[in-house]
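thought: user wants a sequence for this fold. calling inverse folding tool.
action: design(structure=
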């Protein structure tokens, strides 16, 4: 236990320091995590957290699975279908052209051309984990090069399947299995069928049940179950676990629970992804690198340059801008985490020897290490050539919602109808599953989500909203929401309703821009109608109402005090 605590202490301390330095230098957190892994890894002098690097990396790859699940939540089927040209056209050409060219390059270092081609196609794959994490971190997922990057990575995930399938054909070892192609195909079909059934029907029905019970723990566990189940089904079919998670997320993307699901998983994804990047840093064997430093350096430079050139040319051929082509070329020119899997399987089947395996793992890891720096350089170069600012990507970023409404009770329903009739984009959140279902049935963008959950506010990108309207019945929760939004998103206008004057004062003190006290307004409206029916002139009534509402109901406060 003492060793475990000491290891955890060292790991957290080194990681916190390196991530802080890396972020301060404008290189993002990933580079800091990689360097932290190098420092605490078994291949460098200093503290060693663990020597079981391969097991740690295999476990933390589940972070990549969660990342793809969350990406799937943001990728509705219609949106994916609209990207079919980029996925199957651009993505396929990138894998084929890069794989063939890198395969011919690797033929100078291995005896068999077939093995060289396998190595080339393996190195042609990029890192889904690194690329998507960088894009999310920098807010560039919805840019031109961000969408193309996702399309290529999705096709690369699919390409892993045939690459794994040909490994036994290249092995010189005697075959130990008699499974036919028909049985393998049947397994894949069955697993896909189960994934569709669970993703489209069973999981959403179960989420409905626990949401109506307002059981947060069961909701979280059910969400985790959906991720693990999708990964297991695809893994059992011999496919990528990340692909299964993406499909499950896409099935649930049309659900009214999509935002709450994402906010629930975000902490788990963040921890596992951080550990994954640390494990990659631990994998870099500097002793193996120094045994042939020039050859090793040559491999890295050739792979980075060739992949960048190929991606740049293909992007231009598909009509992309030069700016977007440059950014994507420097973003996808590394090798990816699936290379660990393919190299490991090739080694187990005797296709490559131990030395080539170590070099391959090192090349993949070092190429990942350069990615944050190269991408920053690529963005700077592209922006200088295009003569645009570093923040031009906001022009392409989607701005689907500008107003957020918290609560879909009677007040929320009226506000939603008014916003929709005025053509103002908005979204509504409520924790009452029945109200959410009713709102969706009526055609309003109503989602299940606890607006008091601070993680949810980050998930829905509240910083892009111009206004939030708080119509929550529970005063304490409403005040909590107002205070948090004012502290973290000071540019957002906060409109709220309160039950009485005391609650209104607390909301104003918490930072609300404007608050209406329901009991006061109902009293004023009732009195106004009474005076009107008693024959009092409209001008006199208007003057009286203005005096009552003046200075946050100052006159009413004096009356109630007396």
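)
observation: tool returned 562 residues.
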């Amino acid at each position: 236990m003492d060793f475990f605590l000491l290891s955890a202490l060292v790991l957290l301390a080194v990681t916190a320091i390196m991530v802080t330095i890396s972020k301060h230098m404008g290189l993002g957190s990933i580079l800091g995590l990689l360097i932290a892994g190098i420092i605490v890894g078994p291949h460098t002098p200093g503290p060693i957290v663990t020597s079981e690097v391969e097991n740690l990396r295999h476990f933390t790859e589940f972070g990549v699975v969660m990342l793809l699940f969350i990406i799937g939540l943001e990728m509705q089927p219609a949106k994916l279908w609209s990207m079919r040209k980029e996925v199957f056209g651009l993505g396929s050409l990138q894998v084929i052209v890069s794989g063939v060219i890198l395969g011919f390059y690797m033929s100078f270092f291995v005896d068999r051309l077939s093995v060289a081609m396998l190595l080339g196609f393996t190195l042609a794959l990029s890192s889904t984990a690194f690329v998507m994490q960088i894009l999310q971190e920098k807010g560039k997922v919805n840019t031109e090069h961000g969408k193309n990057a996702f399309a290529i990575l999705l096709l690369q995930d699919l390409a892993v399947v045939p690459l794994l399938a040909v490994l036994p054909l290249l092995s010189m070892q005697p075959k130990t299995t008699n499974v036919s192609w028909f049985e393998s195909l049947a397994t894949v079909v069955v697993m896909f069928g189960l994934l569709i059934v669970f993703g489209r029907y069973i999981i959403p029905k179960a989420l409905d049940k626990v949401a109506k019970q307002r059981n947060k723990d069961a909701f979280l566990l059910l969400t985790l179950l959906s991720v693990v189940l999708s990964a297991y089904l695809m893994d059992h079919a011999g496919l990528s676990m990340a692909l299964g998670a993406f499909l499950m997320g896409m099935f649930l993307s049309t659900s009214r629970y999509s935002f709450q699901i994402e906010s629930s998983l975000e902490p788990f994804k963040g921890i596992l992804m951080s550990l994954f990047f640390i494990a990659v840093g631990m994998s870099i064997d500097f002793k193996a690198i120094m045994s042939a430093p020039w050859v090793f350096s040559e491999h890295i430079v050739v792979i980075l340059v060739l992949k960048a050139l190929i991606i740049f040319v293909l992007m231009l051929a598909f009509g992309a801008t030069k700016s977007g082509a440059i950014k994507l070329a420097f973003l996808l020119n590394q090798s990816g985490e699936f290379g660990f899997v393919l190299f490991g399987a090739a080694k187990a089947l005797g296709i490559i020897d131990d030395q080539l395996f170590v070099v391959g793992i090192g090349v993949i890891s070092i190429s990942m290490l350069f990615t944050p720096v190269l991408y920053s350089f690529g963005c700077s170069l592209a922006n200088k050539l295009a003569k645009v600012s570093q923040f031009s990507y906001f022009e392409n970023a989607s701005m689907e919602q500008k107003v957020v409404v918290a609560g879909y009770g009677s007040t929320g329903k009226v506000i939603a109808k008014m916003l929709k009739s005025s053509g103002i984009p908005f979204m509504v959140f409520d924790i009452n599953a029945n109200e959410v279902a009713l709102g969706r049935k009526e055609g309003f963008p109503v989602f299940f989500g606890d607006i008091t959950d601070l993680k949810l506010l980050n998930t829905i990108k509240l910083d892009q909203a111009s206004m939030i309207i708080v119509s929550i019945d529970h005063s304490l929760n409403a005040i909590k929401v107002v205070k948090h939004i004012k502290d973290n998103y000071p540019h957002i206008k906060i409109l709220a309703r309160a039950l009485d004057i005391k609650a209104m004062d607390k909301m104003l003190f918490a930072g609300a821009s404007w608050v209406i006290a329901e009991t006061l307004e109902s009293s004023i409206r009732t009195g106004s109608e009474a005076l009107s029916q008693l024959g009092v002139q409209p001008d006199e009534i208007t003057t009286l109402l203005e005096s009552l509402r003046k200075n946050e109901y100052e006159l009413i406060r004096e009356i109630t005090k007396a």
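thought: summarizing for user.
answer: Here is the designed sequence. Strands lie at 403-406, 426-430, 446-448, 467-470, 493-498, 514-517.
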